[in-house]
Amino acid sequence: MRQIKSVLVAGFCAFALGACSMFGGGTPAPTSGTIEENAVSVTARVQKVDYETRMVTVRTNDGQTVEFHAGPEVKNLAQVEAGDVIRVEYFESVVYEVRRPGEASPGVVMAQDSASAAPGQRPAAGAARAVVVTATVQSIDRRAPSVTLRGPGGDVTTLPVRDPRRLEAVNVGDLVEFTFTQAVAIAVEEVQQ
Fold first, then answer.
1. Residue 58's CB: how many other CB atoms inside 10 A?
2. What is the pLDDT of residues 76-122, one digit of tens each?
3. CA nearest neighbour of 149 among 57, 12, 1
4. Can you give the residue ranges of every domain in the chain?
5. Rounded to whole angstroms, how far apart are CA atoms 191 and 193?
6. What's the CA gap between 100 and 171, in Å, rounded?
7. Cβ contact 98:176 at 8 Å
């Protein structure tokens, strides 16, 4: 588990601080913000459903054929048939916030939730997961520029910072919280004639 936490901390921190150059201008760098955000919505027409194996084959609007396993969380699969249109929405984001000592504690926290349609409703399911990784600023090298973070398991990682102005609002001992969120929703829609 410690190795997973270290990889998460290093990965999130490298991604976040590597993207720091996207904030420009003459004002001091913000101590929170969105690093990356992506939202995708796709519709597809059901080609085939194997109810025994729960394998569903769909064709997207751009002609790609995709096959996937509808797990037990997908209720009411028996209502899905060839010709139905499904909509898949996917969202992910990475945000950060610099916290002062005492406002947060180093660590990794994960929360997840899911939901599905009630019996008799049109088939639908959704799931969301958020992972928060909090690391402590151990040292700052404004000449390099770089920042050294100590992860929740004690692992130390030095990361380059492209824009030194990003470090103006950060002090040794501060904590950096990185939140990675993913959410997906799938629903069968009415076919428009």
1. 23
2. 888 899 999 988 888 999 888 889 999 999 999 999 998 888 888 88
3. 12
4. 2-40+88-184
5. 6
6. 9
7. yes
Six token digits for residue 119: 């019996």
135 pLDDT above the threshold of 90: yes
Residue 73 has pLDDT above 90, yes or no: no
Whole-structure pTM value = 0.64
**98-101: Cβ within 8 A, 24+ apart:** 98/31, 98/32, 98/169, 98/170, 98/174, 98/175, 98/176, 98/177, 99/134, 99/174, 99/175, 99/176, 99/177, 100/174, 100/175, 101/173, 101/174, 101/175
For residue 50, the 8-state DSSP code is E
Burial class (CB in 10 A: 0-12, 13-18, 19+), 136: buried
C-alpha torsion sign, points 163, 165, 171, 175: negative
pLDDT of residue 144: 92
